[in-house]
From TrEMBL:
GO cellular component terms given for this protein: cytoplasm; DNA topoisomerase type II (double strand cut, ATP-hydrolyzing) complex
Topo IIA-type catalytic domain mapped to chain residues: 25-476
Organism: Treponema rectale
Protein name as it appears in the record: DNA topoisomerase IV subunit A
InterPro entries listed in its UniProt record: Topo_IIA-like_dom_sf, Topo_IIA_A/C_ab, Topo_IIA_A_a_sf, Topo_IIA_dom_A, Type_II_DNA_Topoisomerases
Active-site residues, record numbering mapped to chain: 106 (o-(5'-phospho-dna)-tyrosine intermediate)
The keyword DNA-binding is assigned to this record: yes
């Protein structure tokens, strides 16, 4: 058993770690989940400027992703619909209507021209690891220059944790990063392409809750037009929620027409006597026109799941961008320095006729030595010492190239390299300014793309689409109208589904009711569909403290053993739901319950020999109000046969 337990513990930990790190949660470094990263890597591999069949890309990605084509296809379609990394051709679904994408063999995609502006694909900077079968290499993570996790958002459920990151506006994220680099304050909020309204008062910088609403056009009071969708909602699911609310009697509408295509247009017509102002709150309360979304920015940072805020991610990427630019400049400087060395070697090799010194050499070692010796007088002109690889490079120069060597062209190349090296040295001293310049350049490029997309009628917009507003979620309890009959029949059943019987109250599904049974037990419960409470129930009313606390309950009960009667007057100040309480002590027989401040009642005594008085009248107001848990006051020492109360039926909720 110990072996089996250890085996299960080990396997579970490995499985949980795999799901968290390699499937469900995006990596902070590039903002991508593994399947998305593998799709991008495949697109970089097959990128030739032409559109490729999605099914082809999916098939190529399968050699990196071990979970089948369905998950790859879904992730590719979702990534393409972000309109940032992938250009698409064909039906990739409709985010407004909720229609799915066509099969992979019918649609095409290609890498976006600016995709390389986001990711550093240079293998000298990006670390590559073997794929799942060891036959190929794939990037462990890309070095991303921009906070992709914020730009595309993420949602995933792992073992014991989950992430929900809403997408942000591209231009606003870049502007926030620029402000961060300049040391200025900034705030950013989610923005989705379907528009709608959001209240971010409880958002807590990415780890709280937003309330999102559809945007209505109510200019015609007999018609409501939904022009923008809430976050994470499409027209199909919205219509389904409206239909369900209508069938349940929650909203009053005449008809619904869906004209949604490339923008939301749902027309709700209202029946006679109903106006838009009467229905708006009900739409928010009972349909997906209003939703609350809980967010949590859980990402993988340094191989560990970490909860971060949007501000922290922006600051992290601002610092990271500076580091990447520095690495790229240093890498370029290294390449240019090497190229400058080679140009200098070639010039000296040809100009000083060092190649002539190898004509009389008999062995390869002698040739190497002769070439190196020829460069000794020019050591001060060289950037570094001459290596065997340098000599091999020089010996491979064709004779034709040596004879046609252009010294002026060489000098121009050297001058250009030196100029670029000076510029790099200058930029390395002002890395923050370089990072700001890069971000501003990206904004200009995306603005040009947005302009082109508008001309071609493609869905790529830089401006914010989701409006930030201040509102509170509509409480369905406040919107619900008391129009359901609560009935009580002769068999002792109480509820909204009871047929026949007497109607006691008009209720909503969210009401609670206070009832006193025949036995004197009282309790508070939700409005029942059908509940047996016994015949002869004394009292039923809304269980609202402002109502019940004002009621003065007068309970008259009898001891079955002595047949003596007692009176108790008290109020109810609080309760626990669905718990039974008793006005009278255990075993007592409740004869009457009343809520009037003043009333008279008559006790009829058990007839006995030589008993002259067989009845007596009492006034309830003659007895003091006491606590709920106190015992009653004895009315008389004589045995009581029955009680008669004057005008009991005239009292409000007495049954």
């Amino acid at each position: 058993m110990a072996f089996v337990k250890n085996l299960f513990d080990k396997n579970f930990i490995e499985y949980a770690s795999y799901v968290i790190r390699d499937r469900a949660i995006p990596d902070l470094e590039d903002g991508l989940k593994p399947v998305q990263r593998r799709i991008m890597h495949t697109l970089f591999e097959v990128n030739d400027g032409y559109f490729q069949k999605v099914s082809f890309v999916v098939g190529r990605t399968m050699k990196y992703h071990p979970h089948g084509d369905a998950s790859i296809y879904g992730a590719l379609v979702n990534l393409a619909n972000k309109e940032i990394f992938i250009e698409k051709q064909g039906n990739f679904g409709n985010k407004y209507t909720g229609d799915p994408a066509s099969a992979g063999r019918y649609i095409e995609c290609r890498l976006h021209p600016l995709a390389k502006e986001f990711f550093v694909t240079n293998p000298e900077i990006t670390h590559f690891v073997p794929n799942y079968d060891g036959r190929d290499l794939e990037p462990e993570v890309y070095r991303s220059k921009l906070p992709i996790a914020l730009l595309i958002g993420a949602e995933g459920i792992a073992v014991g944790m989950s992430t929900k990151i809403l997408p942000y506006n591209l231009k606003e994220v870049l502007d926030a990063e620029i402000k961060c680099l300049k040391g200025e304050s900034f705030k950013i909020y989610p923005d989705v392409s379907t528009g709608g309204l959001i209240d971010v008062s409880g958002y807590n910088d990415g780890n709280g809750k937003i309330v999102t609403r559809a945007k209505f056009d109510t200019s015609d009071e007999k018609k409501i037009i939904i022009t923008e969708l809430p976050v994470d909602t499409d027209a199909k699911s919205l219509l389904k929620s409206i239909d369900a609310a209508y069938k349940a009697g929650k909203i009053k509408i005449s008809s619904v027409d869906n004209f949604t295509t490339n923008s939301c247009n749902i027309e709700i017509k209202l029946p006679r006597g109903v106006y838009s102002k009467d229905v708006v709150d009900s739409l928010y309360a009972y349909t997906d026109c209003e939703k609350s979304i809980t967010c949590q920015m859980l990402v993988i940072k340094d191989n560990m799941p970490v909860v971060m805020t949007a501000t922290e991610i922006i600051k992290y990427y601002a610092k990271k961008l500076v580091a990447i630019i520095k690495e790229e400049l240093e890498f370029e400087r290294g390449k240019l320095t090497e190229e400058l060395h080679q140009r200098t070697l070639e010039r000296i090799f040809v100009e000083e006729r060092i190649y002539k010194k190898i004509e009389d050499q008999k062995t390869a070692e002698a040739v190497q030595a002769a070439v190196k010796k020829g460069f000794v007088p020019f050591k001060n002109e060289l950037i570094r010492d001459v290596t065997d690889e340098d000599v091999e490079h020089l010996l491979q120069i064709p004779i034709r190239r040596i004879s046609l060597f252009d010294i002026n062209k060489n000098k121009d190349q050297v001058a250009a390299i030196n100029a670029r090296l000076k510029e790099i040295a200058k930029r390395l001293k002002h890395l923050t300014a370089c990072a700001v310049e890069y971000l501003e350049g990206m904004i200009e490029k995306f603005e040009k793309l947005a302009k082109t997309a508008a001309e071609e009628k493609r869905d790529f917009v830089l401006e914010r689409r989701t409006s930030i507003a201040s509102f509170s979620a509509v409480d369905v309890k406040e919107v619900a109208k008391r129009n359901i009959a609560l009935r009580y029949d002769d068999k002792g059943y109480l509820g909204t589904s009871v047929s026949g019987g007497r109607e006691l109250l008009k209720v909503t599904p969210f009401d609670r009711i206070f009832i006193i049974r025949k036995s004197g037990l009282w309790s508070v419960c939700d409005v029942p569909e059908k509940l047996f409470v016994d015949s002869g129930m004394w009292y039923c009313n809304y269980a609202e403290k402002e109502i019940i606390s004002k009621e003065l309950f007068t309970v008259i009960y009898r001891d079955p053993k002595t047949r003596q009667c007692f009176i108790k007057r008290c109020r109810v100040a609080g309760w626990i739901m669905n718990r039974d309480y008793n006005f009278a002590p255990d075993g007592m027989e409740v004869l009457h319950v009343d809520t009037r401040e003043k009333f008279k009642f008559t006790l009829h005594y058990v007839p006995k020999p030589r008993q002259k008085i067989n009845e007596a009248e009492f006034k309830a107001q003659s007895y003091e109000e006491k606590g709920l848990k106190t015992l009653g006051v004895r009315l008389d020492s004589r045995e009581v046969e029955s009680i008669e109360v004057q005008s009991a039926d005239a009292q409000g909720m007495l049954l």
